[in-house]
Amino acid sequence: MGTELRLQDYLPHRLSVASNAVSRLIARSYELRFGLKIAQWRLIAVLADEGPLTPQALCARTIMDKVRVMRAAQGLLDRGLLSRQPNPEDGRSHRLALTRSGTRLHRDIVPWALACEARLLQGLTRADILRLDTLLRRLQKRAAGADIVK
Amino acid sequence: MGTELRLQDYLPHRLSVASNAVSRLIARSYELRFGLKIAQWRLIAVLADEGPLTPQALCARTIMDKVRVMRAAQGLLDRGLLSRQPNPEDGRSHRLALTRSGTRLHRDIVPWALACEARLLQGLTRADILRLDTLLRRLQKRAAGADIVK
DNA sequence: TATTGTTATACTCTATAACTATA
DNA sequence: TATAGTTATAGAGTATAACAATA
Hints:
Two copies of one chain form a homodimer.
Chain A: H1 11-34, H2 38-50, H3 55-62, H4 66-78, E1 82-86, E2 94-98, H5 100-120, H6 126-144
Antiparallel strand pairs in A: 1-2
The structure holds a DNA duplex.
């Protein structure tokens, strides 16, 4: 029976601590340089990549719930970075789209975001990075899998 | 100039999403089975491993700030899982220690916590797990390194 | 004056539920 | 009735500041 457990070696703790350190760094930088919250950046990144989407689709793409997507979108709408487009197929819904200034902002952010990621990953081999990505996806999938532990 | 960026391939996002999925699963389980918050579990784990510590030492060990440690400790004190010991060396300070029931609770949690971790890591090789741990530590260190990106 | 513990405050993230308007 | 969007509320995590007691 392994009854030893050191917190600093416990994976859920490691993951949380690492994620928090990275998120904090990123969040501060986004705030300072672009006046954006991470949730807002997520919307911009997805919309720039995929074009106009409904709030619901944005929830799925960004892995955020409706409330958080709404709040993030509202801030961007207020700043004129997003606009609403009516959805002819369903009167209940609409699509959110980047405005010109939203697109411009996205273009400003991307190089910086990539450089930021590169610095975090500096010193790692291509193989390491791929492995990390794979392992994180796997953890996410298993955790989202639900009733692993009850 | 790489101007492509897919959110789902962006490391800070991957890390955040994976961490959140794991944390949510763990948090629910701790709550259901032991009535503990993650922050409280961290205190218990560290105190069981290292013996009585000051709140300040607990901040360092758990990577949580004073406020969070205080809130977590208060809940455990209220439930009689922790007790305060005066610190003869410094009248300003005191040490927090597990009570008998705190120690008992810890003994109940550990096997479950290890099983939980094992299920999350199921299917991964020993080498994968070590690699993941190393990579997470590295990310944490680089992110905590501070002014990587301003 | 600096530090330890403590309390207060606030904002973000996360979660839930309820409400509206369409379907 | 069901769904999409919206609003309200609340708990937990995170951060900052201020205060009291002690060093």
